[in-house]
Specification:
104 residues, mainly alpha, 6 helices, 0% strand, elongated
Amino acid sequence: MHLVISYIRQFLQQNKILAAVAGYMVFSVLLLSFTGIDICIPCLWKTLFGHSCYGCGLTRAMVALVKLDVKGAYDSNPLIFIILPAAAFYFVWDFIQFKKKSQL
């Protein structure tokens, strides 16, 4: 267990920007879910051009999933069911590659 925590610590230190962005997103979604305080970054495309992009609604979908509202998540943006597993797969795959390189 201690070895896994050590690898995770090293992985986060090597990927500081990715860890910071992911941490901010998780924190902002949880804060919005439980308190209603919105510190999420607004959609730049919608701000500049006034039209929704394909990513609009992903934060609302994440908030709905935290609240276990699958239908609400799908209604906000159905891409959440593609992007969330793909992101989880990427993070796990990247960590495994990091661990293999560290053992060499």
